[in-house]
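Archive entry: two folds, one per protein. Generate the first.
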Amino acid sequence: MSRVLVTGANGFVGAALCERLARDGHAVRRAVRLAERAPAGSDAAVVGEIGAATDWRDALRGVDSVVHTAARVHVMHDSAEQPYLETNAEGTRRLALAAVEAGVKRLVVLSSIKVNGEGGDGRVYRATDPPSPTDAYGRSKLAAESYALEIGRARGLEVVVLRVPLVYGPGVRANFLRLMHWVASRRPLPLGAVRNLRSLLGLGNLCDLLCLLREHPAAPGKVWLGADGEDLSTPDLIRRLARAFGTDARLLAVPPVCLRLAGALTGRGAEVARLCGSLQLDITPARGQLGWRAPRTVDEELALAARWFRSQEAVQGG
C-alpha cells in the first residue's frame, strides 16, 4: 500500500481524488490550509498558505508520491500577477524541492490548458506546442510546470505534468455552475447559432487519469493533456445538460457576432468568447502511450453533475 499526499485536498478536484485513491486502497494524506478544514478522522497535514515559504516536511514524511492540485485558481477580472506567481509558481517550486529532500519518488502537477492559450484560432492544442499563456494565471502555471520539470531532471524526482481544460462534475463552481443554473431553470439562452467545439473533462475521468499518471512508467518527465475525448459545441453541451436534468433546452439562434458585441458592451467579452469560441485538446499521446480511455462518457459525467446540483437545491430549499 502506497502513501499519497494530495495538496488542495479540500478543493473541487482534491477532495474527489482523495476519495478515489482511498477506494483504490492507498493511504491518503490530505494537505490542508487550516486545521479546522481537515476532515475528521483523516490523515491530514496543515501547511498554511502555499508559497515560497511553505514548510512541507511533516506533510511529506513517509510519502511515496504527491499529486499537487492546490492552486490559486483563475478568477475573472483578477489580473494581479504576483499572487498567482507566489502560490502557483513559487509554491510548486518549494514543494518539488521539499519532495526531493523527503525522498518522494513522483510528483504529479495538475496544470491548465491556459498554458497553451485561450483557443479560438482553429488549432487543436498539443502538449508539444510552444506555450502561449495570455493571463497571469496561465503564466503562473507555465512557471510552475517549468520549475517542477527542471527540479525533476536535476534532482532525480519523477515529475509529471497534466494540463486540463474546463473540469466539471459534483462540486463545480464558477461559470459551469452558472450554466447549470441557467439550464435547470429553463432560461432561454441565446446560444443556438454558435458553431464551436470545446474539450471538457469530467471530474471522475480526471481523477482516473491522475491515478494512472501517478504510477505509469511512461509518464514522468513529460507534459500530458487530458479530456473526455468527445468535444462538444456549446449548444450541444446545453442540450445534454438539459437531458441530464430531464428537461428541454431552450436555445435562441442569436448570431455570434451580436453576442460578442453585447459581451464587449457589458464587460463580459471574455465570458462570451469562451461560450462562442473553440478550444480543443489532442489527447492522442495519453491514449497511445498510456493506454488511457476515459472510464465515463460525457453523458454519464453530466448526469452525476446534475444529480449533485439537484441535491444542493434540495438542501438549500429545505
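Generate the second and append.
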Amino acid sequence: MREQVEALLAFAVRAPSTHNSQPWLFRVTGNICELYADRSRKLPEGDKDSRCLYISLGGCLENLESAAKYFDMFESTGIGGLTDLTAPVARLNLHSSRGTIADLLPTVKAMAGRFNARGPSLAKPLPDELSSRLIALIEGDARLHLFTDKDDRAQCAELTARGMRIAHADKAFRAELSHWMVSNYSARKDGIPGYAMLAPGPLSLVLPRLIRTFNMGPLLAKLNTQSILSAPAVGVITTSFDTPRAWLDTGRLFERASLLTNAQGAKTSVFVAAIESPELRKELGAMVGSDLLPQFLFTLGFPLYTLPLSPRHPPSERMV
C-alpha cells in the first residue's frame, strides 16, 4: 500500500509552486495520506499573507487526488481547518489500486509533461470546446473567467507590466527572488532554472546576481507584455473571500484548468504580478465586473518553445 501511495506522490509533486519552492510535506500511514504545509519554504517578501503557499498546496492536492482517481485508489478527501499550522491541510482516504480508469489517462499524462510555458505563443486560437469546458470549471469558492478579446488581454498585459515594475523596484523582493534562481547546470532540486526564464546556459550563471543587483522590472515587464499579448486567452481565477480555503480552492482550480488545457495540446503560463499589488488587483477585479477577488492570472495558448521540466524533490525527501 505504501508503495502505491508513493507512486501517487510522484505525480503530486509535479504541481507548480511559486518560485518552484515546493512548500509541501506528506505523511503516509496505512491507507491515509496527509498533506502538510512546509512553512520553512514560505516567501517572506513575495508571499507575505501565505496566499501563494496555499495556492501551491491546492495544485499539489489536485494532482494527488487526480492520480488516486486514475489508479482507482480514491475514497475521499477531507480538508483541514487551515488555521492550526501543525495540522494537515488535507487528508486522503485511499484503498489499494483496482486498476486504472482509461478516461483519466490524458490527465495523468498532462501532470507528467506540464511546464510553465514562458515566451510567445503561436497565432492559434483555443478550440471552442476547450474554452467552454474551462469556463464551466468550479472548485468551492473559486471561479474561472476567460478573456479572449484583444483589448481585455492588452489590459491584463498592462496591469502585469505595472506589477512587474512595482515588484522589482523593491530590493528585498529582488534579493529573495535571486535566491530561488538556479543556473541551467545546477543539480539543485528546487528553484527556478534559467531555462524556465528562457535564459541560455551562460546567462543563467549570472542571472541571480543580475536580478539581485539591478532593477530589471522594466525589461521583464516588456517581455511579459509580449507574451501575454501573443496568447489567445487569459484566465483569471476569482473568489468571494480572502481566506486560506479560498486560496486552496484557487490552486486546485488552476491545476485542473492547466491539466485540461495540457491534455488538449495547449499550455498555460502563470503571471501574478498584477495580483500582488492591491491597487492593480482592484483594477483587475473591475474587469471581472463584480465584487469577486482576483487570486490568480495565467495565459493559455500554444507556446513557441517547449521547455524542459523544472526539477523536483522526490516524495521520499518530503516526508514527515
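Annotation attached to the second fold: Residues 58 and 248 are 4 Å apart (CA to CA). The chain has two domains: 2-114+313-317, 128-169+215-301.
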